[in-house]
Specification:
Blueprint lengths: L9 E3 L5 H8 L5 E3 L1 H19 L24 H11 L4 E4 L2 H15 L8 H13 L1 E3 L2 E3 L6 H10 L4 E4 L2 E4 H7 L11 H6 L3 H31 L9 H5 L4 H14 L3 H6 L8 H4 L1 H23 L7 E3 L3 E3 L7 H29 L1 H4 L16 H17 L21 H34 L7 H10 L13 H12 L2 H10 L4
Parallel strand pairs: 1-2
Antiparallel strand pairs: 3-5, 4-6, 6-7, 8-9
Helix pairs in contact: 1-4, 1-9, 3-6, 4-5, 4-9, 9-11, 9-14, 9-15, 9-18, 11-14, 14-15, 15-17, 15-18, 17-18, 18-19, 18-20
Length: 511
């Protein structure tokens, strides 16, 4: 998993990656356009202006949109129609997307609209890029999209000096936000309202955030499960290279490699490990379960990055001199990939929750009940497992696929919809919940490892380092104490990438 470069900016013009999106959305890297990007945008715009002069019948340019395709828009009304389109498509509702989510969508707008097949003017894209570079963060509600349109329209509204936006953490109206950032609103021209709201930009943006989070969580799951195996004195034979070699699933080999590397110097395992001829499945099946999730997450990455580098607009303004009405705006690839990400996250969570349960259960752990040195008058980590079980229940609900749904819209003109946005929205939520389940396992594993080390044997170097990180803010539980902050800290160790970084410092990239 490549790390985003937080210091250098992203130049739109060539192939883009999920790491580029993360760099801009999360780490606020500046954006710029290459000469090739600018040239192809200008050439595409020249074609739109030519089509208008020739009085061609073009969807969304000289006609209405949706079922209004059969209605011609007079030339003197065509430009204002684009602004009206943005206004009437601002139908998303509820709480707003966070800054990272909105920045990711704006990144995707620049990627999609700069392909040279959309016909938008360069100055519109330049203004949008300044939103990213100057910290203008449009207020965009989160609910009410079947794949595109509503959320994007609220972002586009601010380009016109309308709507609402955050600047320097303050929410204000669109005009004031632009003025505070030293920017001027823009009047939309032919096709530009449609360009800004069409395409699966929101779905792709949120799916990219989810995939990146899950790939990081997967690496953390490999690392944390190693601590659990060490704390429970697991049988390393389950991760033997000979076992891996007879199953043609390279993604499971990687997890086994990670566990062997992290635990190679464990005194605990050398002296106390392998007492069970065969461990429970939640331990010996770690490579297979994590490997299946890994393959699913990486397959989703391919689909998402293909979408990042595609033109999702409609109609396509093709350099051959035609405007082609089709449906590249469909978010099916991203929708199905996002639904699969939810399943992969649940797969990782369900085995992590079982490992957590084994550590707190004195009947199978070989450790004090609920990992408390004095279990009689203390509950220890009893309810930690309840938390993981409850979160896993939430994740299972979110794993129901959104992409199988379809509710006809627009007087049956759009009689099929992808629901890709809903799939991506819940994938991102699911990724965040998984971090808590892995964080809970980490908290329990740290306590279990410290109890095991108290018997006079030393943990692995990795175990020692991860234990030190946990103990920065989550103390060893001698007596019951307020546990929620400890859980949040361990989740932060997962979500920030620190668990992965500690592991990678010892064994190299956990790709």
């Amino acid at each position: 998993m490549d790390q985003p470069n937080k210091l250098t900016g992203v130049c739109f013009g060539d192939t883009l990656t999920i790491e580029d999106l993360i760099s801009v959305a999360r780490f606020r890297s500046p954006v710029s356009f290459s000469g090739a990007y600018r040239e192809r945008v200008n050439q595409s715009r020249a074609l739109v202006e030519q089509f208008v002069r020739e009085n061609r019948l073009i969807y969304g340019v000289t006609t209405g949109v949706g079922d209004n395709v059969k209605r011609v828009i007079p030339e003197d009304e065509a430009a204002i129609y684009q602004e009206k389109m943005v206004l009437t498509h601002c139908t998303a509702v509820g709480e707003p997307l966070d800054e990272e989510g909105v920045r990711a969508i704006m990144f995707m707008m620049l990627a999609n609209l700069g392909t040279g097949y959309t016909g938008i003017r360069l100055q519109v894209l330049e203004l949008l890029s300044e939103f990213l570079n100057r910290g203008v963060f449009p207020w965009a509600p989160i609910h009410g999209s079947v794949g595109y349109l509503g959320v994007e329209a609220h972002i586009a509204l601010v380009l016109m000096g309308k709507g609402k936006a955050f600047v320097n953490g303050t929410l204000t109206d669109g005009a004031a936000a632009l003025k505070a950032a030293g920017l001027e609103p823009i009047r939309l021209g032919y096709k530009e309202g449609l360009c800004l709201i069409s395409g699966g930009t929101a779905a792709t943006a949120l799916a990219a955030l989810a995939e990146y989070g899950l790939l990081n969580a997967l690496a953390a799951a490999d690392a944390v499960s190693a601590v659990t195996v060490e704390a429970l004195g697991g049988n390393m034979g389950a991760f033997d290279e000979r076992v891996m070699s007879v199953k043609k699933q390279a993604d499971q080999w990687k997890t086994a490699d990670h566990l062997r590397g992290l635990l190679a110097d464990s005194e605990i395992l050398k002296k106390l490990g392998g007492q069970n001829l065969q461990d429970a499945l939640s331990l010996r099946c770690i490579p297979q379960a994590h490997g299946a999730a890994r393959k699913t997450i990486l397959d989703a990455r391919t689909a998402i990055e293909n979408e990042i580098n595609s033109c999702d607009d409609n109609p396509i303004i093709h350099p051959s001199g035609e405007a082609l009405s089709a449906c590249n705006a469909d978010a099916g690839f991203v929708g199905i990939a996002s639904d699969s990400l939810c399943i992969a996250a649940c797969y990782l969570a369900k085995i992590a929750e079982r490992r957590t349960d084994r550590m707190v259960n004195e009947l199978v752990s070989g450790l004090p009940a609920f990992l408390s040195p004095d279990p009689g008058g203390n509950s220890g980590y009893m309810i930690l497992q309840y938390s993981s079980a409850g979160i896993l229940g939430e994740m299972r609900v979110l794993a129901h696929p959104a992409s199988i749904d379809a509710i006809p819209t627009c007087a049956l003109q759009e009689d099929y919809v992808s629901m890709g946005y809903n799939a991506a929205l819940k994938a991102r939520e699911t990724a965040g919940l998984l971090e808590y389940v892995i964080g809970n396992e980490l908290l329990a594993a740290a306590q279990a490892l410290e109890l095991k080390a108290g018997a006079g044997v030393s943990p692995s170097r990795f175990g020692q380092r991860i234990l030190k990180a946990v103990r920065e803010k989550a103390p060893f539980m001698t007596e019951d104490h307020y546990i929620s902050p400890d859980m949040e800290w361990c989740r932060d160790l997962v979500s920030s990438g620190r668990v992965r970084e500690i592991a990678e410092d010892l064994i190299g990239t956990m790709d």
